[in-house]
């Protein structure tokens, strides 16, 4: 990487910020390889993502004020993994995945003791659905119950239809049935997006706005608990 940086005029001009779009793209391609690619695809995409890590580390190594290199990154990661696995490297005992998670979170809490909110460290740049799942976990931690989906009988009167006519029911009504698999969950989510499209709504914006409200609720619950 150092040789490339020294001899490639394009590479010499790249900053951490310039690399962000490539990092997003390579991460997405790795996900594709994991979910539907071949072993060769997976190997290649892991290499492409590793290149991003090496590239960032090389840029960081030349920072005039606070340089670090890939060895520093690897050393920090190793130390973190040792701290967060006391059942492996120390005297703690964890016989179930749930117990491992308890130890992991306890170690993480000690590392991040300066944090004052369960929302600290949660990136709002996460995809909306991933962020929603993350925030629901944080809400549960402060005692906020998850929202309940609307029921079929909540349909406005002007939208009422024969209950037996499934085609006439609002798209979001699919959420009220029992979802028994990720495939069915995908169908329900797609139906909700379809309903948004039919009504001229922006599904992404709607979820983002609801998540901002949930974040405010979480912070309010934390304030009450202090």
UniProtKB/TrEMBL annotation:
Keyword Methyltransferase found? no
What's a single GO MF annotation on this record?
Answer: nucleoside triphosphate diphosphatase activity
One Pfam family from the record = MazG
Q: Origin, by domain of life?
A: Bacteria
Q: Does the keyword DNA-binding apply?
A: no
The segment(s) forming the NTP pyrophosphohydrolase MazG-like domain are 15-89
Q: Where is this region: Disordered?
A: 142-168
Alphabetically sorted, this entry's keywords are:
Hydrolase
Read off the InterPro entries from this record.
MazG-like_dom, NTP-PPase_MazG-like_N, NTP_PyrPHydrolase_MazG
Q: Name one GO biological process term.
A: UTP catabolic process
UniProt-listed PANTHER family = NUCLEOSIDE TRIPHOSPHATE PYROPHOSPHOHYDROLASE
Q: What's this protein's name?
A: Nucleoside triphosphate pyrophosphohydrolase
Q: Which organism is it from?
A: Microbacterium ulmi
């Amino acid at each position: 990487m150092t040789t490339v940086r020294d001899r490639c005029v394009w590479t010499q001009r790249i900053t951490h910020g310039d690399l962000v779009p490539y990092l997003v793209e390579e991460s997405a391609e790795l996900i594709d390889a994991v979910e539907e690619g071949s072993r060769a695809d997976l190997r290649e995409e892991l290499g492409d993502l590793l290149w991003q890590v090496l590239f960032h580390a090389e840029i960081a190594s030349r920072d005039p004020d606070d340089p670090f290199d890939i060895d520093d990154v690897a050393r920090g990661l190793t130390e973190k993994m040792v701290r967060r696995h006391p059942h492996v490297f120390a005297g703690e005992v964890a016989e179930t995945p749930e117990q491992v998670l308890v130890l992991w979170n306890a170690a993480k809490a000690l590392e991040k003791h300066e944090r004052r909110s369960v929302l600290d460290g949660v990136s709002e740049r996460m995809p909306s659905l991933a962020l929603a799942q993350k925030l629901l976990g944080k809400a549960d931690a402060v005692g906020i119950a998850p929202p309940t989906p609307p029921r079929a009988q909540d349909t406005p009167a002007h939208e009422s239809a024969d209950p037996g006519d499934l085609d006439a029911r609002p798209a979001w009504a699919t959420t009220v049935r029992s979802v028994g698999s990720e495939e069915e969950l995908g169908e329900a989510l797609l139906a909700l997006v379809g309903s948004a499209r039919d009504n001229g709504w922006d599904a992404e914006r709607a979820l983002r706005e609801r998540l901002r409200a949930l974040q405010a609720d979480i912070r309010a619950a934390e304030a009450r608990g202090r």
